[in-house]
Amino acid sequence: MTETKELIKKICLLGDAAVGKTSLIRRYVYSSFDDKYITTIGTKVTKKSLVFKHPSQDMKVRISLLIWDILGQKEYSRLHPVYYQGAEGGLVVADATRPATIKSLEEWATGFQKTVGSVPLVLLIHKADLIDKSTFDLSEAERIAKKFNARLHFTSAKTGENVEASFLELGNTLCYSFFKKINAI
Ligand code: G3D
Ligand code: MG
């Protein structure tokens, strides 16, 4: 019988206000997108389970991702370290239509890793449905991605583009770290 390991992993969604963090979670977990703005009150946690198979051994890992949503406003920044505590990965989100939010990626990633250490990050250039990707200047985001050894994706909660893939990528990295930790890879 296949052995299934159970893991619980906390991940955080980071990024300036209104970049689309809550919409990304809603799209990923409930497969829906709502144009009505819903302000996140404090933090909110959503759970999603993922199952990964070991590439060669008869072993499965079920990861219960605890996805923490946050209020991005700077007034709440003193609470951020409390919210980050115990997280093992992060999705750092920028709004493709607002260059200032791309610059902020570095600040969010730095603050996060200062509290939790060098956990894996995925950077998202979000609201990709609103821009022309072929002419979009990626240089700043690419520089930041490189600095944090993070992958960079264009995402849209409106079309669903790359939403599931981005969460899966983080889940996959966490799973791979687990296999390494137990010397199964
Ligand atoms: P936040 O949780 O980071 O603060 P929200 O951001 O998820 O609340 O989203 C902020 C606004 O961006 C919302 O619009 C939401 O509908 C919109 N949005 C989120 N993701 C996308 C996307 O992929 N494409 C487009 N076109 N819009 C998106 P409003 O108008 O309510 O402020
Ligand atoms: Mg929100």
Tags for this entry?
single chain, globular, six-stranded mixed sheet, alpha/beta, Rossmann fold, 28% strand, binds guanosine-3'-monophosphate-5'-diphosphate, binds magnesium ion, 185 residues
Summarize the structure.
This protein is of the alpha/beta class and 185 residues long.
Question: How would you describe this protein?
Answer:
The chain has 185 residues and is of the alpha/beta class. The protein has one domain: 3-Layer(aba) Sandwich (Rossmann fold), CATH 3.40.50. The chain has 5 helices and 6 strands; from the N terminus they run E-H-E-E-H-E-H-E-H-E-H. Helix 3 links the parallel strand 4 and strand 5. The protein is globular. The structure holds guanosine-3'-monophosphate-5'-diphosphate and magnesium ion. The site of guanosine-3'-monophosphate-5'-diphosphate (G3D) has 19 residues, from helix 1.
Task: Count all strands and give the number.
Answer: 6
> Strand-residue fraction?
25-35%
Could you tell me the CATH topology label: Rossmann fold
- What ligands does this structure carry? guanosine-3'-monophosphate-5'-diphosphate, magnesium ion
- Largest sheet entry: 6 strands, mixed
Low-confidence stretches: none
**Helix amount:** 25-40%
Q: What separation lies between the terminal Cα atoms?
A: 20 Å
How confident overall, as mean pLDDT? Answer: 91
> Helix count?
5
Q: CATH superfamily, please?
A: P-loop containing nucleotide triphosphate hydrolases
Specify the structural class: alpha/beta
- Write down the Rg: 16 Å
Shape type: globular
Q: Give the CATH class.
A: Alpha Beta
Strand order of the largest sheet: 2-3-1-4-5-6
SSE topology string: EHEEHEHEHEH
The second-level CATH architecture is 3-Layer(aba) Sandwich
